[in-house]
What we know:
The structure is a single chain. With about 100 residues, this protein is mainly alpha-helical. It has one domain. The chain has 4 helices and 2 strands, in the order H-H-E-E-H-H. The protein has helices spanning about 10-20, 30-40, 65-85, 85-105, and strands at about 45, 55. It has a two-stranded antiparallel ribbon with strand order 1-2. The radius of gyration is 15 Å and the shape is globular.
Amino acid sequence: MLxxxxxxxxxxxxxxxxxxxxxxxxxxxxxWTALQRVHGFDLVWTDVARTTVRHGGSQAxxxxxxxxxxxxxxxxxxxxxxxxxxxxxxxxxxxxxxxxAQRDH
Length: 105
């Protein structure tokens, strides 16, 4: 996607085979997180107020190319963290999620 050889919509369709399936299990946690990210990179805003999104279309993408580049860097960092200490990585991610949820309330 970053170099334009694969469209966001094609990448979404590829990832959707796993992300949207009811009967597929992806045992590798980091592969699963990559699939989830790729699945959402084709989201577009459907309204001028930018309150609603959907997959694909001719509207403005929710995620810029810069966002995609940063997501790749973040995922690569997460992979290194997970490989070095799987339990610690998951614990830190859960703590960060809890903190974010508390901020939103």
